[in-house]
Structure formats: C-alpha cells, structure tokens
What we know:
The structure holds two protein chains of two kinds. Chain A is an alpha/beta fold. Chain A is built from 31 helices and 18 strands. In chain A, helix 1 packs parallel to helix 3 (40-52), helix 5 runs parallel beside helix 7 and helix 7 packs antiparallel against helix 8. Chain A is globular. Helix content of chain B is 52%, strand content 0%. Chain B starts with 9 loop residues before the first helix and ends with a helix. At the A-B interface, helix 18 of A face helix 2 of B.
Amino acid sequence: MQDMPGHSVTLLLDGLIDQSPALVRAKQLLPALDWRFARPEQVADIVSRLGQAGMQIPKWLAQDLLAAGHTVPDHMFAVDARELGFLAALNDANISTDTAAAIARDLEGSGSLDQFPPKVTCQIIARLCALGQTTTGVRLALGAYASAPEALRAVKPHLEVYIASLPDLQVRVGGTSSCQSLASALHYTFAAHGLRAAISDGGYGSILTELVQVDQPADVLVLLLDQNYFMPHDWRREPEQFAADLEERLSYLADAMTSFCARTSGSLIVTTLPTGASPSAGYADHTFASGAARVGARVNQVLSDVAKQDPRITVLDTGQALASLSANMRVDPKLWYYGRFAYSEPATRHIAAAVAQLWRSRSKGPVKVLALDFDNTRWAGVFGDDGIAKLQCGDDFPGSAYKAFQNECLRLKSQGMLLVALSKNNADALDVFDIHPGVVLKRDDFVATAVNWEPKPDNIRKLAADLNLGLDSFVFLDDSPHERAVMRRMCPEVYVPEMPSDPAARPEWLRALPCTWPTRITGEDAKRSSYYAAEVKSRELRAASGTYDDYLEGLEQRLTVQPLTPATLPRVAQLHQRTNQFNLTNERFSETDLTQPAGQDGDRLVYSGSVEDRFGDHGLVVATAIDVAGDTAVLRSFVMSCRVISRQIESAFLWALLSTLQARGVRSVTGLFKPTEKNAVAARLYANFGFTRTGSTDGFETWRMELEDLTSPISRAVNIQWSGEQC
Amino acid sequence: MLARNATIRPEIADIFGDVFEYHGPVTQDTTPEDVDRWDSLQHIALVRALEEKFQITLSMDEMMELDSAGAVENLLRRHSV
C-alpha cells in the first residue's frame, strides 16, 4: 500500500467517485488515478454507484483497481477475463491456501502470463508470493520477464536461489554490436525454461572472434546481428563497390559459421536483421544496392543458406521476436551512441526470450500431439443439439474462421504434428468429418479418436497409452474454460494454453504458439502421422487375434538395415535426440558425433533400420552407433522409436548388427546400458539376447557376448534385409 | 541555483540499491567514486531504471549530466516527477 493520502486527496477522490458513472462512461479523469491511494470503502463506493447506474466495471477500471490490490466482486466485471477473476480472488485477504494453490497451478499450466498488462502480472505474482506460492511466483515472473521485467522485483528474495537450483547450460554471446545487455537478459530467459545459463560475453563486435577463435567450449553460441555493421561506412564509395564489400563481408561470415561447426560441438543461434524503422534509399530501399531493406534481405538470405547446411545452426527471426514492439521501441539511439547497443532494453529482453524459447524447442522438440475438441472449436454449433446441417464451418461467415482454424491444424499435421480427436459427444459426431462439405479435416487426419462421454483427462491418458507417448507430448485445445481447468488439474503434464474465446482470433493465435514451432523439418515429419495411424490400427488387430506371437507373425514385418548415409543422417540424429524410452545408453549423439572420424575408441559404425508391415510404413525407427577396434566392438548407443516397441524389432536389429560385426572379424561385443527414469522398457534387451552382465563402468552397466555363440535369428516375426553395403 | 542539502529522495536510494546493489547512505554528493558498481555499463542500467520507474525519456545530454545522486534528483525535478 502507498502512504495514506492526506485529507484533501481523500476528499478529491470522493468527489470523483460521486461522478463515477459519467466519468467511467466518458473514460475521463479516473484512468489517471493511482488506486493505491484509495481506501477500501471508497472502492466499495464506486462499485455500488456503478451497480446502481446499471453499469458493470469496464476492463480498464477492473485492471486498475485489482492491480492496486483492491478486491472487487468479479460478477461486476464487464468482460470475462480469467486474470481479473484470479486477481480478485488473490487480493481477498481471506483466500484459502488451496484456492491460491489452484490458481497458481492454473496459471502455470497455461503459461500465458505475458499476455496480461504488466501491472496485473506484477500484482498476481506479488500476491502468489505473499500466499506462499513462491516457486510458482518465481517461474511466472521469469516467464513474463520480456514484457514485465518489474515483476522480478516481487520475487527477488527467492530468485537467485531458484536459478541456482537449475541444471547448467554453457552459453556464449557474441555480436556485431555490444551484447552485454543480451547476456544479462539471457540469464533470466533461460531460467524461465529451467536452465541456469553460465554466460560469457565476447563484447562489442566479437562476432568473428567468437566464431573462429574462441576455444572455450559451450553448449550454444548466440550471435546478435544488427544493421549498422553491414551498412556502408563510407558514402563516398561507389554503390558497386559497396555491393562487392558486402558480399565479401558475408562470405567471411558464412565461412566463419561453417568453421565454427567444424571445430566445435556446440550449437549456433544467429539472429536475423529486422526491418528497420527508416529506409536508407527512400522508395528505392528494396532495389538499390545500399538500401537498408535490400541489405537486410541479402544478409538474412546468406544466414539461411548457411543454416541449411548444418542442423546445429538455427536462424532466429528477430522481426518475429520483436513483433509486439513498435519500431521506435526497438532502438534507443542514445544507447547506440553511448555504448554501441543496437537494440533497446525492451527489444533485447524480447530477443533473449526468443533465444531461450528456441533453445527449449531445439533440445526438447516441439510438442507432438494436438488434442482437439469438436463443438465450438472445430465448428460453430453443438453436434448433439443442432445436427450436422446446422454446424457452421466453410467459406461463409462465421464458419470461415473455423475452417481457417482447421487449416492451421492441417498445416501442423504436414509438419509432423499428430492430431487426435477428444470430444464429449456420441461416436457418430465423427460423421461430421465425412459428411459436412465445409469441414476440411477428415476422419483419417486423426491418428486416434476419443469421442465419448468419459472425462477428457481419462481419454487423453488412454490416447497417450495407445500412441506410446508421454502426456507431456500433448497440447489440448478446447473452447471450454471448464474443460481446460479440469485438464490442467488432472493432467498437469499436458500443455493447456488459453485459447482465445473469439474464433476469429484463433488461427493467428495458433500460428503464434511457440510450443508448436518445429526448429527443423525433415522428410519424415510429413509422414509421421501415417506411421502412428498404422500403429493404432495394428493395436486394434492385436486385440482381435490369438496369441501375441501369432499376431506379430501376421503383421509381415520387414526390417531393412543400412549403414549411415547422408540421407539418413538427420533422422538418425533426431532419433538419438528424441528417444527417451527405448534408449539404452541415453547418449544424445548429434550429426557430428555420428560422423566423427576414427578416434581412440576405434572406428565408429552407425546403422539404422526401417520397418514396414502390412498396415504401413513406419520409416526409420531404430539406430545404433558402434565403436569397433580390432576384434572387439562396443555398442555406444541403441535407440528405437516408441512406435515399434514390443514387436521384436530390437532383437532382429541387434541380430543383424552382430552378424555383420562377425563378418567384419569382430569376436567380442560389449553392450552398454544406462538406466534412466524412462528406459525400463529397454532394460532386458541384452539379457534376453544372451549377453552376460560383466559389471559397471561410469554409470553404465556392461554386458558381453562372444560372437561364436551367435545363433540364427531368435525371432520369426521380423524379416531382415540389408540395403547398401553391409560394412 | 537550487539549494543543496544532504538528504535525497528515497526513490533514488532505492534505485541505487536495485541497480548498483549499493546500500550505503545516498546523499546529494554521492558520485561514481563512492559506488563500486557505478561504471559506464551500469550507468545505462541507471538511465533505464529512471526511464521505466518515472515514465520519462532521457536525452543523450541528460544521460551525461548524471554524475551524482544530486544530479539525478535535479533531473527528476526538471521532469516534474
């Protein structure tokens, strides 16, 4: 609370409150007030006067009152804004611990605090901390850092202790301008994604040094680019000379990026040049050699071309990161002249937030499954009440917004996302996808469906089990606040964003949802959906046929094994990065690790296997890296997609590997196994195959097999064939 | 010329605490000499803190003129905040 105001201020407020219905309508004088000066009885007074005038409390006033710490009955709000309801509850001195915890959970589950006005965010966080929800308060404040940095103040006593508890990430920062501000901002934005970033900063103009000279290893190097570096420094030079200078500069940069990837194992995040506020060649800015727009486009083109060559390079779109800031907020000229800071503080925070978000997506992968509600999400109307004919979806308003949203879902499907249907309806609601002419999603676009009257959390668990995926792979989209709240409560692992209540806002909102953003799209991603659909179909057959072995034999599975090729490399690396369950050694080999030349551990051989069965093509689903030295070999990694677990693929693949090793003259093979929380399903592989446990080293169980003991394939369920040379 | 006295607006001492982690006495005559972390880099943080807290925008000249806590107070007075 602010210092209590003097008598005259109180009188003044009373005068304004007396006129409040007229002042609220005109939005005059009251918006300028700091309501921390008002006494609780004055707030009660204005609420009752508005009530008597038949008015509700408009959003701006509700925000002002609540952010100042007052309680307001939430039925008086003119808008249904979740954050206002929460804050009304949190400001109430009599709130129970359970309610505070439920609000904390709901806010964390939706992760959308940065959509609220900063003062509301700050007050929510301050109250959560005061009510003992400090860890949630810290996480929310970190998440809102880009738009509401002042929220950190409320959590200051707990902040560094929390960050210190997080796992480390080694980060280097370099740039064409000064990058100290970016380095400090990254400390908070990485913490928002659960990482304690140990940051070292190369300083002003360090871009090339960082790329080609610095030897200190890091998980990621972040490069901040800005327009000034690439623009002409001497306007007396001819435009053609400038164009040649620019190309030379860019070829240095491209070479330096390539050399970085060759000499280090870290990742590289490079920011693009955003469109500037003003041109340097007037209306010819896009066509003239030294036009700022043309230079920006050329630089960004070169960055993308280099990034295409190496998956460890990701180009971050700065314009996108700064989308919420107007052009004059993105730079602070005095900071440029003072210390060569190319971006303003708010812009720097937004870039830092985008970098950390990108890193999270890179390391964890985007979410895998979009779980979709039907009524009023897929189409306007309720199937059970209105019937198919009355459901609105198509080219006419308002169905056009629903159709656009369906198209966004299809876009995500084409980029590797799985769609599942999750609707409280009779099963015949699925007919809509076959019959309704305006509905562009079709029944087969869903890899699995749960259309019944069971609670959605139960259904989503069942779908997760059918697809062999964790709940943390799911995003749940539903127009009902109730269903969203229940899902957050019962399945906190599922990400439940706050979908806008206005259908017109939803297509753009879904495009802007970062958890759905892939960092790189492989050929496999487009086909992923059909693989999973085949898996679900074959599970249905399993339920119907006799013994499991009969079922497997009936599947006519074909495993095609091949040595590593440039075409399979990205997918093999992706399997190493993403697989958590059937992963024997938990080694997250990158493309570089997989292609490393012969070293002290001997030659590294990498094999992969693709699986087809009578229901479909599962693609490349199993891979291994083996180090061979003389007549001994060590299995450094063995990863298999959860799509094909329990189908004896792993034994067939292992048998193929061992027989090819035998053919190469290997006599003894050591298998490594590192137990983790998730890989119990892989624990029996060596034992089942006849390996003998020999001990443990460095956290790995070691298992051995002498290849003279190798017999014919133990499984009849998989037909093995080779593609390419075996050795 | 405004009269100098030793005391200073409490918000300025708060900002010195936040920005410089300086919790000693802040007076009109407190200068970068007295405050360890008041270097050229943290000077930017001071400017940003003033701009955000008081909702003002400083010019380059104003940025240079801030060489003591007293100068900060004068600046705020001039901006009527």
